């Protein structure tokens, strides 16, 4: 069987801890994996001033995929590691689909009193390479009473159409075949118009997909009180960031939310990471839940064409989650990883 | 006692229905109110092409306050009524504080299984006159594969500082005295830096207020799984739009969410409106819940210095909500209005 060449970026805080468990599970799958670890993150930044050297970025292009833990530390001013490391990876490797399933597994406790697993089963297709994340903007007269700070959302037909097409394909592959555009067309009229027109036009090629539209404010509300409205969602970079965290909350917490930064054209490796951050407050204590990372590993396997292996990992997680109903909070990061690994191997 | 001069804009859809109940309650309070109704909205737009004529806007400046129902109809392209009527009112009347309490009243059903009233009691101070709502942006090569559409968030020291000061004052007036800035400083680095620096600087003048920071994505999650984290929140126009809808969802639904578009300097009348929209799907059927409008009337009374009257309306709503636990869905818009009116009249 083929050999997966994997670049691993554990990153900061709990990143290292959860990635270790993800790799354990990956090995148990039985596929040959060759991993190389990159020490990018806060520590390297403090020691060398480097976030993502060009040579490293070039090297990363040579892998089949990247597994990332978490990036960010309070010792580094906000934005530096995010922009120059995490977002640079997403942008330069053209991860134009940020794929984030929102799924309530049976047995998982949700803050929603009445939601059942069949009510929360969606996939958010978040645009990953433009919008307000482009970094456009500036500041004039900083620190004075006349200061003006701007941020610009940049949206292109090229960028919107490709992610919308991906979302339609995704919707077509699911039983409900429903795609909802989430935006704020009544206020962000220029960008919203481009998104809405693109969805309308592409929808003509997908007569079997039902399309719907929802403003971001209403969608955020429906995630809480009518999650069953949604199947596949397509949305811009910032709205996708926000609703996938609401999604994580309703589907049992940030400890379970997986994601893939996908380059569907395969011109560069895709990158898989838990939705959660580096959580410096609990780092190094074995308290982090590695499940989100393990589910991200399943997405990685699926992306590499190993659907059976991916399903096996997801099933192992599902089985573990059912058993958590009794006494789950007592297990460490490593114990959860070990238990899921045993299920995958077994 | 003084005579309130009130401009009423019922607007579209359920707007007319809920405003009628709000006015009924207002009259029952016993304060003398002189109302003038303005037919702004979709109907007028279709008949005359007018959204908000300058002469009408000037006239509106002469009132003590404005009560607004809801604006928007699917027959009008997205953005027209929102930008040229609703947002024009907020911007031109300098409603720089969009005040949105998020409060779970006893007896109200929340989708959160375990939340109690003491867990959900916050106030969102949403900036109302700048950010992405400024309407800045544009489109190039519309309708071609080379289209680029931009939206710009404009943030000024002037605009940020005044709303931040209002939020600190609000926090100081509440028992917990906690203020949380919600933004996305790690991605929106220019605007985020201005907001964060402003909160830091102003906080020195409020040593008794505890300040905190939360990214919008994390805050959206915490609204669902740790709402008790928050007391007063200050945030920009778009983030405030989104989290107050999540707030409405967790506090029992959009039918209960009130808001005030406040001009704290009183250079123009403030405007009070339910957070919900015109809901064309249920318009004209007596199905809309007028409670959000009635609570907005309470905010209006409070703004005009009638604290006792405001408290009386809020208490009447609170009492009605406790009784709804049995059979509330059977009442019409008008019946709910009548019942609350009867309680206010006492
Ligand atoms: C860390 C941050 C830049 C990132 C984002 O906003 O995309 C994170 O919140 C996420 O969702 O992966
Ligand atoms: C109708 C729309 C322009 C408005 C907004 O986005 O502010 C509404 O959602 C609100 O929250 O009052």
Topology:
The structure is a homodimer of 346-residue chains.
Chain A: E1 3-11, H1 15-28, E2 32-37, H2 42-48, H3 54-60, E3 65-70, H4 80-92, E4 97-103, E5 121-127, E6 137-140, E7 148-156, H5 157-172, E8 178-183, H6 189-203, E9 210-215, H7 216-225, E10 232-235, H8 237-250, E11 258-262, E12 270-274, H9 291-303, H10 307-323, H11 333-345
Parallel strand pairs in A: 1-2, 1-3, 3-12, 5-10, 8-9, 8-10
Antiparallel strand pairs in A: 4-5, 4-11, 6-7, 11-12
Helix pairs in contact in A: 1-9, 1-11, 5-6, 7-8, 9-10, 10-11
Structure description:
Two copies of one chain form a homodimer. Chain A has 346 residues and is α/β, with parallel strands linked by helices. Chain A folds into two domains: 1-109 and 255-346, Isopropylmalate Dehydrogenase, CATH 3.40.718.10; 130-251, Rossmann fold. In chain A, 40% of the residues lie in helices and 21% in strands. The first copy, chain A, is built from eleven helices and twelve strands. In chain A, the strands form two sheets. In chain A, strands 2-1-3-12-11-4-5-10-8-9 form a ten-stranded mixed beta sheet, with helices on both faces. Chain A has a two-stranded antiparallel sheet with strand order 6-7. In chain A, helix 1 crosses helix 9 (291-303), helix 5 (157-172) crosses helix 6 (189-203) and helix 10 (307-323) crosses helix 11 (333-345). The longest helix of chain A is centred in the C-terminal third of the chain and has 17 residues, at 307-323. Strand 7 (148-156) of chain A pairs antiparallel with strand 7 of chain B, so a sheet runs across the interface. The complex binds 3-isopropylmalic acid (2 copies).
């Amino acid at each position: 069987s083929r050999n997966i060449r994997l670049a691993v970026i554990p990153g900061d805080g709990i990143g290292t801890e959860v990635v270790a468990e993800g790799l354990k599970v990956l090995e148990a799958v039985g596929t040959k994996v060759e991993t190389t670890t990159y020490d990018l993150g806060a520590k390297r930044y403090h020691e060398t001033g480097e976030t993502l050297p060009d040579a490293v970025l070039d090297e990363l292009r040579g892998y089949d995929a990247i597994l990332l833990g978490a990036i960010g530390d309070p010792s580094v001013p906000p934005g530096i590691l995010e922009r120059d490391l995490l977002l640079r990876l997403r942008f330069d490797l053209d991860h134009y689909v940020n794929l984030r399933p929102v799924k309530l597994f049976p047995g998982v406790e949700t803050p929603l009193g009445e939601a059942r697993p069949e009510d929360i089963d969606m996939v958010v297709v978040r645009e990953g390479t433009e919008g307000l994340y482009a970094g456009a903007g500036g500041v004039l007269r900083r620190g004075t009473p006349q200061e003006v700070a701007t941020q610009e959302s940049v949206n292109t037909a090229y960028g919107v159409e490709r992610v919308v097409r991906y979302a339609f394909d995704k919707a077509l592959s699911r039983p409900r075949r429903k795609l909802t555009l989430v935006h704020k067309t009544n206020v962000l009229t220029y960008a919203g118009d481009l998104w809405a027109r693109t969805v309308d036009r592409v929808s003509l090629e997908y007569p079997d997909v039902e399309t719907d539209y929802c403003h971001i404010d209403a969608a955020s509300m429906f995630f809480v009180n009518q999650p069953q409205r949604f199947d596949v969602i397509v949305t811009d970079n910032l709205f996708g960031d926000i609703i996938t965290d609401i999604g994580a909350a309703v589907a049992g917490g940030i400890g379970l939310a997986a994601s893939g930064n996908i380059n569907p054209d395969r011109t560069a490796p895709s990158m898989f990471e838990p939705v959660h951050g580096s959580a410096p407050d609990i780092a190094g204590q074995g308290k982090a839940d590695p499940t989100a990372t393990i589910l991200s590993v399943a997405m990685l396997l699926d992306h590499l064409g190993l659907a059976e292996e991916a399903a096996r990992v997801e099933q192992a997680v599902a089985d573990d989650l059912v058993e958590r109903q009794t006494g789950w909070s007592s297990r460490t990061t490593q114990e959860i990883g070990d238990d899921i690994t045993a299920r995958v191997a077994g």
